[in-house]
Amino acid sequence: MSAVYAQTSLTSRVSTALYLHPKLLLLLLLAPPLLWLGVIYLGSLFALLLQSFFYIDDFSGNIVREFSFATYEQLFTRANADVFIRTTVMAAAVTVAAALIAFPIAYYMVRYASMKMKAALYLAVMLPLWSSYLVRVYAWKLILAKEGIVTWFAEQLHLIWLLDAVLSIPLIGGPSLSISYIGSFLVFLYIWLPFMILPIVAALERVPASLTEASADLGATPNQTFRKVILPLAFPGVVAGSIFTFSLTLGDYIIPGIIGNSRPFIGQAVYQLQGTAGNIPLAAAFTIVPIVIMAIYLMVARRLGAFHAL
Amino acid sequence: MTKLSGIAVKFSGVSRHFGEVRAVDRASFEIQDGEFFSMLGPSGSGKTTCLRLIAGFERPDAGNIAIHGANVEGVPPYQRDVNTVFQDYALFPHMTVLANVEYGLMIRKVAVAERRRRSQEMLELVKLESMGKRKPNQLSGGQRQRVALARALINRPSVLLLDEPLGALDLKLREQMQDELKALQRQVGITFIYVTHDQGEALSMSDRLAVFNQGRIEQIGAPAEIYEHPATAFVAGFVGVSNVCTGELACRLTGSAQAFAIRPEKIGMIAIREKAPEGWLLVAGRIRAITYHGATTRYAVALDGGGELAVMKQNAGNSGIIANIGEPVNLTWSRQLNQPLADEE
């Protein structure tokens, strides 16, 4: 007597076929995301790279579709170099400040907060991401403006002299917070902070509390434990967060347009070149710059051993 | 290292509460210098909390703890002359085995050459001399356990705390490590305080042990003393197997309502016609169940007047099992083997 496993419905037949051919199943699952990544994502990036080797004919203003380094010669001028340096220094400053602020918050969330407190903190970190980015940036313009809350507060506390002293610092100061590098820095920091906190929380969650205890047990002071155990193990989280804050600041063109001293950042330069100026090749070349900066950044991070504990 | 007293650790009325739960409730005991002392109890009985109180990870809500005669209230873990082997080993995953073992010396800023030499020595002591360059995740459970041991011993603490260090290992390895741990303790000659829920482990390894139940210490003594003379029904039931006879059953067997415990292996099982020796207790029953354990067989005997006793026999003969289910038998044992128990609170 031999029993027969009846393949009655079509779905059960498909299920059985896929179960018996796991590689086919994997292919079906991976095909859509791979197509997206390969064609739309990498394809557009490649198109960008290609465009940067075209150039604009000076007389007609038309794009000449021929391979040339003419656009890159245009890119490396003194004025453009200032744009790169300005943007990179801002991105680095925002990243360092975000890491310094985010780490204690993340550490508190993981080690000390009760379940309720932790949920409340998660909500507090994520809540700003639910509202419009533009609304939040304009809200900051009002807060930082000369007639804004910060000025009013300083007046009430008789600290106007302090505010004036800060604003009179050369280069980063300005007529008011909303028209200075300090202002753009503060808003960048506010907007990207969640992207630093969440990866650090995720990294710290994976460090068992017993490691801290073991370190103390072996004679390490809290300071030594932090430097030898907690920081090295949480560092991949800090690096992941810094990739977000650094690259997001590098590419942003809205914040420096609304808050700041109207000296352009990379994003704004790209926006103007592809829009009003109609110089698509130079805009494309401009966007290659943050990609190169990020590549260098990741290489340095790797050299520093940021990915060793992964 | 100066030893101010022969007492390594002293608890005086120590309590530790977590909200409503009394994890440790007015514990008082002394651990001698150089002793292998076990804290035995079910999970949640307060034994691990006691260990954490000694290490300094917890602070008592009441009472005093002294290590070598010095009160340690307010002394942080990193200033205490004790080291811990953690239940999950707590090895630093980003460091090599050698760096893990060296950690305590590095923190104390011992010169590199000296700490290389001493950590290599430690690795030899735990038989891992060739594993120094590996990362903890490249080791087996037993090897990690040894690294944790070497790391804790390198600071030459006066007291070593071990929190269920063999709990994660399989049976064969656990038995091997028990022997090694005991030999190591004799070799280094420092006080071991060993937390376990495994009564066999506690009996075979310890010089003395404390039995914990619901935050309180039920009995402290040498292994044989605890096993042969359990003070309470809890100890009698938790350490080995016991028949605990109370109330009416005790009255019927001995003529007194005094509760007592009798070990299953101390009870003789004889045919229904046979007479008991002079002065021995005799009770008739029927075999209800038989459980075969290899070296021994355990019989559950339902007594004729109600109640049940467990009886254990060595399987010395050929067949092992000497009676069948449903068979009537007489049970007999010397009255002197009855272990009177303290009344339950």
Structure description:
The complex is a heterodimer of chains A (310) and B (345). With 310 residues, chain A is mostly helical. Chain A contains 14 helices and 2 strands, in the order H-H-E-E-H-H-H-H-H-H-H-H-H-H-H-H. In chain A, a hairpin with a 6-residue loop joins strand 1 and strand 2. Chain A is globular. In chain A, 30% of the residues are buried. Chain B has a 6-stranded mixed beta sheet with strand order 6-7-8-3-9-10, with helices on both faces. In chain B, strands 13-17-14-15-16 form a 5-stranded antiparallel beta sheet, with no helix packed on it. Chain B has a 4-stranded antiparallel beta sheet with strand order 2-1-4-5, covered by helices on one side. Chain B is α+β, with helices and mostly antiparallel strands. Helices cover 27% and strands 32% of the residues of chain B. Chain B folds into 2 domains: 231 residues, 3-Layer(aba) Sandwich (Rossmann fold), CATH 3.40.50; 98 residues, OB fold (Dihydrolipoamide Acetyltransferase, E2P) (Beta Barrel). In chain B, helix 2 packs parallel to helix 4. Chain B starts with 6 loop residues before the first strand and ends in a 5-residue tail after the last strand. The interface between A and B is medium-sized, with 19 and 25 residues.
**Strands of chain A, count:** 2
Mean pLDDT of chain A: 89
Sum up the overall morphology of chain A in one term: globular
Gyration radius of chain B, in Å: 24 Å
Helix content of chain A: over 70%
